[in-house]
Amino acid sequence: MLQPVCATPHPLVGEKVPLTIFDRAAIDIFVPTVRAYTAPAPSNEVVKDSLARALAQYPHLAGRLVVDDQGKRFLHLNNAGVLVVEVTVSADLADVLIDGAISNIGELYPPLPEENIGAPLFQVQLNRYRCGGLVMGIIYHHHVADGTAMSSFVRVWSSAARGGKDFIVPVPAPHVHDRASTAIPRATPMPVFDHQNIEFNDGSSKSYEVVPLDRIKNLRVHFTPEFVSELKARVGFRSSTFQCLLAHVWKKLTAARGLDPEEFTKVRVAVNCRGRTKPPVPIDFFGNMVLWAFPRLQVRDLLNSTYGQVVDVIRNAVSRIDGEYIQSFVDFGAVADMNGDGLAATASVAGTMMCPDLEIDSWLGFQFHEMDLGTGAPCAFLPPDLPVEGLMVFVPSGSGKGGFDLFIALNEDHVNAFQQICLSVD
């Protein structure tokens, strides 16, 4: 168990920090990621020393989830520490890292805790290979932070490793850990949207089929920079890489699924709310600030639409997550608390078949794949196997040639059809 290292404990140490409504909307799970470093890789001591110093400025990660006598969850910033597991592997990294992928990825990060209350909220497994290579598996609990926040922490950890023992981790500005300021309701809370059935689930929401996990297959698809340039040309106006790739994959997967033309399909799109609140929340705020947009189209229209038309649908849905919507969400949380309502975050269990729908998480703006601990960026950055059909993640490619990787979970019956068309823009 690794404790934060600093001359003076962070002023928040000892506090019990209530979860915000954004924290409570986040899925109650540990999120795994895996990075691989070829030899000469950073030593275990460098990794641990720099982590201990970075943690001193991020006390939430070294704390624990606790429950009060009313059943409400808090983050207890008790400096209990993070778990570090060190493993020696009697093989060369080149023997197991094939084409940027590792087959037994689930063994390379700490086992997901069976009970989240009281468990270390940040855990690392250092897998040291015979050749000196390192595969580092990390899990962290989503109630602590979203991807944007963890990207900020990774940058600090990396700087501490590259700077050596004399490097002093900078003290974050007060707003970085000010969770309460991100969820201030109006004097008279006035929620105007149906948050009980959007961000949360009252039991009346659409239910999906749940199947054995062996019917869900994980794929990785690589999109070259040239392919993305072609997509952007097809859109016909200035658009982001994320918008173009999502429009493309939505069209291709819908075709591969062979859906009824009259059916509707939607995508659950994670939206960073930091710059959308009034006033904006600084980008380096450490916590959760994500809501979701739901672009929706009839299958017939989706397949017959141009890339530009589909990108417009995605943009319009995302634009609705604005200051008014976010304030309504915060007000909803205040009303729920006043009424003593329990809130269950919308989350799919393992084995869920989301067909005809999709869910996308974009890690394109995060620096996870650039985590240089003193010997260079990782040669591979890998999300875990995805246990929900229709769930996908975009990440920057770890290959030297650039481009982007899609990790996607598919119904085994749709894999061949998707593979045949996913790299075609026709």
Fold-level CATH name of the largest domain = Chloramphenicol Acetyltransferase
DSSP summary: helix tally:
10
Helix content: 25-40%
Please state the average pLDDT score: 92
* CATH superfamily heading of the largest domain: Chloramphenicol acetyltransferase-like domain
Q: For this structure, what is the CATH class of the largest domain?
A: Alpha Beta
The largest sheet is: 7 strands, mixed
Bulk shape: globular
C-alpha termini separation? 54 Å
Which structural class do you get from the secondary structure elements?
alpha+beta
Strand content: 15-25%
Counting DSSP E segments of at least 2 residues, the number of strands comes to: 19
Would you identify the CATH architecture of the largest domain?
2-Layer Sandwich
Radius of gyration: 22 Å
Order of helix and strand elements from N to C terminus: EHEHEEEHEEEEHEEHHEEEHHHEEEEEH
* Unreliable spans: none
The total tally of domains equals 2
What topology does this entry show?
Layout lengths: L15 E3 L2 H5 L4 E8 L6 H12 L8 E4 L5 E4 L6 E7 L3 H4 E2 L2 E2 L19 E8 L4 E8 L5 H17 L45 E2 L5 E8 L1 H11 L5 H17 L6 E9 L17 E4 L2 E3 H6 L2 H13 L3 H17 L12 E2 L4 E5 L17 E3 L8 E6 L7 E8 L3 H7 L5
Parallel strand pairs: 5-8, 12-16, 16-18
Antiparallel strand pairs: 1-4, 2-9, 2-17, 3-4, 6-7, 8-9, 10-15, 11-19, 12-13, 12-14, 18-19
Helix pairs in contact: 2-4, 5-6, 6-8, 6-10
